[in-house]
Design goal:
- This protein is of the alpha/beta class.
- 42% of the residues lie in helices and 9% in strands.
- The strands form two sheets. The chain has a five-stranded mixed β-sheet with strand order 4-3-5-1-6. A two-stranded antiparallel sheet has the order 2-7.
Length: 294
């Protein structure tokens, strides 16, 4: 219970707090430093919170076939189109996110266009042929299927829920119907293994700890990641490897991941990491609105 944890801090019963010491309570910690015998520090994080992975493999079975249910067919129709994913990115307002959720303790990610450009986002969806056919305020897919999905996030992460709620608000402005689903980690793991999560908010390390080679690839392309983990990139017959063989641009992403661990750190930081960040932004598989979170 995160509320009880905060009370423990305020009563002076805690010796140390890290992830459970939350940025939205920084003023409370500062005000009670003397009575609670605590010192509150704001330090740089080793990753950024609330990175959104858009699972382009959701709605597929393990063989790569689209499942028969309407939700799967609708998601595959739009999520595999980069215009849809970029519309999600463009509609988001990074400044509102930083000010509202993180109290100003972050800066906009220079690689990503989270500019709250509603006009451009709408134009991309219009170009796809997504219209509100039934007049309920939300767009259907180009073929007329109802579209709605959930943003999954981990219980216990106090910033995830307000961040996800803001995403839903931004996306409703462009006629898209998303809702928030907060679940505990055990259930999350089960659902991820079953490929039942269309969008996920989490903590990939990306540019912060680049040598962790953590860019959310297991969340935005889980079947592709299975293929890569099974040795598909270097297999004599890539199609024979378990998982789904990804498109060539994603294979190049994996090659870059491997190359950053072979050359010099300088080459990795100055050339390869920027390439990876640009790849994720241009393809909008992973939306990282802000960086340098404290």
């Amino acid at each position: 219970n995160m509320e009880m944890v905060q009370m423990e801090y305020m009563s002076g019963k805690a010796d140390f707090g890290r992830e459970s010491a939350t940025i939205d309570n920084i003023s409370l910690y500062k005000e009670n430093e003397e009575t609670a015998h605590i010192t509150a520090y704001v330090t740089p994080q080793h990753n950024n919170s609330c990175l959104l992975s858009i699972n382009v493999n959701y709605g597929l079975d393990a063989e790569g076939n689209v499942k028969d249910d309407e939700a799967s067919r609708a998601w595959q129709e739009v999520a595999t189109d980069v215009r849809f994913r970029r519309a999600l990115m463009l509609s988001m307002d990074v400044h509102e996110i930083i000010d509202t959720v993180y109290k100003g303790f972050a800066v906009p990610n220079p690689y990503q266009e989270c500019t709250h450009d509603i006009d451009q986002a709408n134009a991309l969806l219009d170009e796809m042929g997504m219209k509100d056919i039934d007049g309920d305020g939300f767009r259907e897919t180009p073929s007329g299927l109802k579209l709605s999905w959930q943003i999954f996030n981990y219980a216990g992460s106090n910033d995830h829920i307000p961040m996800c709620e803001l995403m839903c608000e931004f996306w409703s402005e462009i006629g898209l119907n998303a809702s928030v689903s907060t679940i505990e980690s055990t259930l999350m793991s089960t659902m991820r293994e079953a490929n039942e999560i269309p969008t996920l908010v989490g903590w990939p390390h990306t540019t912060q700890l680049w040598h962790y080679i953590s860019w959310g690839q297991e969340s935005w392309g889980p079947y592709w990641q299975d293929w890569y983990a099974a040795g598909g990139l270097n297999a004599e017959d890539p199609s024979s490897v378990s998982g789904l063989e990804p498109p060539e641009e994603v294979k190049e992403f994996y090659r870059k991941l491997e190359s950053q661990m072979i050359g010099s750190p300088e080459e990795a930081v100055n050339e390869i990491v920027p390439w990876l960040a640009t790849f994720c932004a241009e393809n909008a598989y992973l939306i990282e609105t802000f960086t340098d979170l404290k």
